[in-house]
Specification:
Strand content: 5-15%
Distance between the termini: 76 Å
Helix content: 25-40%
Structural class: alpha/beta
Largest sheet: 7 strands, parallel
Radius of gyration: 27 Å
CATH architecture of the largest domain: 3-Layer(aba) Sandwich
Strand order of the largest sheet: 5-6-4-7-8-3-9
Shape: globular
Number of domains: 3
CATH superfamily of the largest domain: P-loop containing nucleotide triphosphate hydrolases
CATH class of the largest domain: Alpha Beta
Number of helices: 24
């Protein structure tokens, strides 16, 4: 047996099997001829062997060829370009001494993915961090801070196309010595409206750099990017579609036919009776829906956290990190960009997959209805995301008030150990379904995708819980089934006897009535207000301007937006199905909408007020019998 220091610098016993696995991993990645310091990092991250996309892509990138790689989500595409590029930087620095310069630019569609890629870079440069510096310029920080970081000429810059174009135009980001350009999630980059930014970058980039593009799908957008950036000719195509189709899928697909209001009954039963174990990602149509589901579950003591584009980027990243660490188990994610038909921005037209064709059919959306459902107005009319407008520059593209146009949750983000993806609201097309369910069954693990769908005859039967998107559920589901069957997997009906939930119906109906539009709006406002109060940047401002803090907290003392009924948090034994008693004894993880602790000072004031202490109270709320002092004020 061997002993080795763990992450906390504490000696621990390493089994012989572990040593053998590490040796085999080192040998497998060592066949690529990469730097020994990178191999140490690979062993530290406990990668057993390269994935198929890594096996095919790494040698091509090391050989200096332009590459376009297509592989499913969770297949290890990030490491497929990180390792050879880091090796190339180390080789150049070892062979000659040169001035510091930015030699690698990595473009990604969202801020979340930029942070994830930067984290991966720092993990794999643990043993050579003095030789390689990387920076993420998508952070929300003062421009002077970003400019100072870029002035250090980091070896690698990770950015969205818009931020990269901004800093190149301001001459803060210098790319004269660029050797590698990477476009991660290439099929999404143009869908987010970065067409003009990419053309601007293409015009200023020097010649002779190597281009690596990676994508989960091969679409026309990748052809456009090839024309712009592959100046050395057609890139080498690495397409693993055939191999992936031959693999036995570890993802199980289930679907439930349900009425619109019964979605809430089902999700209540699933979590309260723990019918699904482990971490769960719940996808809903828009931000309002996100808070409606959370407030509904909260009444039963089922704790969850929300994730949407309205939250500050640092908060979103913290949610993902805490979820991956196991702090909580349920995320309710609003992929609201899909609710109006495109990833990354507002659109007037959306795509719904109809029967009788491989391509999506464009369907007009009632913009007023969508605005009403999302609680916003003033949306801009733009072209569909799958066919970005060449005439309309991205600088004129406006997201909804408070929405981050560079937000994306169904693609690229590495949610770890997700047991189930629950489509509370079915996505608008089969492609979106694939990307959502790609958050589970990653890295060889098993996973489950459970989807609720509303049949046409039940649509709009319960208006308080109805959304326009559900009208097309049956058409979308047919396309989803076709896509799932192509992978050799069957989409099964989830065998669940709804009759067993009839005893819960009166409790569920009572809770659902309490989640009003006003309650949802207050919950959204409270969440944003708390983020402002917790902001490190605003602490100094509030210290210098206490009146601003006072006004910000003007409505902070409101009661909970939903009337709390403590009895709903407990399930009587007579309501439980057979064997269900032990299922409700364990709490689910929690990230609250508001503060958990009471304000000690206000609580003391309220207590003293009730006892008649302090200054004389006035108003009809005063009870003279409770405040009566026969000996006179100030005497006992």
């Amino acid at each position: 047996m061997k002993r080795k220091l763990n992450e906390n610098d504490v000696p621990e016993v390493i089994s012989e099997d572990t040593v053998k696995k590490q040796a085999s991993a080192k040998a497998a990645f060592g066949n690529f001829g990469i730097d020994s310091r990178l191999l140490q990092a690979v062993n530290r991250e406990k990668f057993s062997a390269p994935t198929p996309v890594q096996t095919k892509t790494i040698p091509l990138v090391l050989g200096g060829k332009d590459v376009l790689a297509r592989s499913k989500t969770g297949s290890g595409k990030t490491l497929a370009y990180i390792l050879p590029i880091l090796h190339s930087i180390l080789q150049r620095k070892a062979s000659y001494t040169s001035n510091k310069s930015t030699s690698v630019l990595i473009l990604v569609p969202t801020k979340e993915l930029a942070t994830q890629v930067t984290s991966a870079l720092r993990s794999f440069t643990t043993f050579c961090n003095k030789d390689i510096q990387s920076e993420n310029v998508t952070k929300k920080e003062d421009t002077a801070v970003t400019r100072a970081r870029l002035a250090e000429q980091p070896d690698i810059v990770v950015s969205t196309p818009s931020r990269a174009a901004q800093w190149v135009n301001s001459e803060a980001l210098k790319l004269e010595e660029l050797k590698h350009l990477v476009i991660d999630e290439a099929d999404l980059v143009l869908s987010y409206g970065y067409a003009d930014d990419l053309r601007s970058l293409s015009a200023v980039l020097p010649s002779g750099f190597q281009t690596t593009m990676l994508s989960a799908t091969l679409r026309t957008e990748t052809d456009t990017l090839t024309t712009l950036f592959c100046k050395n000719g057609t890139p080498t195509l690495v397409d693993l579609s055939a191999e992936e189709a031959a693999e036995k899928s570890k993802l199980s697909h289930y679907v439930v036919r349900t009425a619109e209001e019964d979605k809430f009954l089902l999700i209540y039963a699933i979590f309260k009776l723990q019918l699904i174990k482990g971490k769960v990602l719940v996808f809903v149509a828009d931000i309002d829906r996100c808070y409606r589901v959370k407030l509904f579950l909260e009444q039963f003591g089922i704790r969850s956290c929300v994730l949407n584009s309205e939250l500050p980027v640092n908060s979103r990243l913290h949610v993902v990190e805490e979820f991956n660490r196991g702090v909580y188990d349920i995320i309710i994610a609003a992929d609201e960009a899909e609710a109006v038909g495109a990833e990354g921005g507002a659109r007037k037209r959306r795509k719904v997959e109809r029967e009788g064709g491989e391509e999506d059919e464009e369907v007009e959306v009632n913009v007023a209805v969508v605005q009403h459902a999302s609680g916003e107005a003033g949306r801009n009319e733009e072209d569909d995301a799958d066919q970005p407008s060449e005439k309309q520059p991205r600088t004129n593209r406006k997201a909804r008030k408070g929405e981050d146009p560079e937000y994306g949750i169904s693609r690229g983000i590495d949610f770890r150990h997700v047991s189930c993806v629950l489509n509370f609201d079915l996505p608008i097309n089969a492609k979106s379904y694939t990307h959502r369910t790609g958050r589970t069954a990653r890295a060889g693990q098993t996973g489950m995708a459970l989807s609720f769908y509303v049949p046409q005859e039940l649509f709009r039967k319960h208006k308080p819980t109805s959304i326009p998107q559900s009208k097309d559920d049956e058409a979308v589901l047919r396309k989803v089934r076709e896509r799932v069957e192509k992978t050799g997997t069957e989409m099964k009906e989830w065998a669940f006897d709804m009759q067993k939930l009839e005893g819960f119906r009166y409790r569920f109906a009572d809770a659902l009535r309490n989640v009003t539009r006003i309650a949802v709006r207050e919950a959204r406002t409270r969440e944003l207000r708390n983020e402002l109060l917790q902001s490190e940047k605003l602490k100094r401002h509030f210290e210098e301007n206490p009146e601003d803090l006072k006004h910000l907290r003007h409505d902070g003392e409101l009661t909970h937006p939903v009337r709390q009924q403590q009895h709903l948090k407990h399930v009587p034994d007579y309501l439980l199905p057979e064997g269900g008693k032990t299922a409700v004894t364990k709490d689910v993880g929690f990230v609250g909408l508001g503060k958990d602790k009471e304000n000690r000072i206000r609580k003391a004031r309220a207590f003293n007020k009730g006892r008649g202490k302090g200054r004389m109270q006035k108003g009809k709320g005063l009870d003279p019998l409770k405040s009566l002092n026969v000996r006179g004020r100030g005497k006992k």
